[in-house]
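Researcher: Let's try something more involved. This one mixes different molecule types, so please make sure each is placed in the same coordinate frame as the others.
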Amino acid sequence: MSTYGVNKFLRTCQMNRDFRAIAKSDPEAAMAQMPLTEAEKELMRGGDIKALYEQGVHAFILSYFTRFELFGVTVARYSESIQQAKDWRKAG
Amino acid sequence: MAQVVAGFGVPHTPVFPSVVVRKGPDCEEAQLYREIEGHLDAARADVILIFSNDHFNTFFFDNFPVFAVGVATETSGPNDETSMPAYTLPVHEGLAAHLHVQGILASFDVAITQEFRLDHSFMVPWHFLNARQRTPIIPFFIHCFSNPLPNAERAFALGQMLRKAIESYPGNERVAVIGSGSFSLEIGGPLADKGERAGTPDKVWAKHVEDRLAAAEVSQLIADATGERMMRAGNAAGELLNWIAMLGVCGVKKPVILKPQVSHGHAFGVWI
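Model: All components are placed in one shared frame. Result:
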């Protein structure tokens, strides 16, 4: 999984308001426009922030999930999920 | 010959323009930027070279140079919906082009962009320090916001090279230099405090950076600022490289002012 498509999806939400509106109203149609694997689409549908981070999506870009309220991810849910992520910078 | 007249270090926290609108002109952020602005005015700069890092707004993973300089007559921003006024900014095209060419000749392989907009990393400093004077800028992009980070010694050497390039420019321009960014901040990642959206600093590292800067121990700072250590201090901690590049231009000396905002993991500084 390259995660390029996930980064691109989220970054396009940031840069393009039309795409952002589609991502919010019809996320499947928005995902169809992006170079995403089925496995990546499944993680996005589930709002699996922990897994997306561990696969290599950039955390700043990943936080657009909450900036634009994508796939139902709230700040609280994002925070809980990202804190469970494995990270080489964490002790243990 | 053009000459370097002063260096500055400031944060580019995207909420600060709206914080100042909300809290008023006497709030800490407004006072700190105003103090820096006063020193910038006193430097009587004709050009301001700004080192900063885009946050995937101007550049993206489809094409992301480690070092790039903006060469144009003007640019605009913010391009990331930061809550602040929109500006058109003059760019010093002649000196920007000179820095690009001299960078290549000095083996720094600096990329060029001739059509670009700027995100909050350049626009927040512009808003607070230069929106009134409108001194032409040279935007210099250092990619220090994702792994792997460029080496700190390379960022410093880049600054040293650019000083020589400035001094070889056939004009009388007075050039101020700004390094923009944080010493330590985790934004949206696992090291951020729960529910925190603005970012969480590693205060031990931020204090270490501040102490090295205050003592002009730049060689030690460069040795300590490994990619691994900076990343451990947060995914935005690489922004320190913007300050290190600024010091490469200014030369190693103690700051006239260095005022930290500990809770944010950054500082405001002046080198003359």
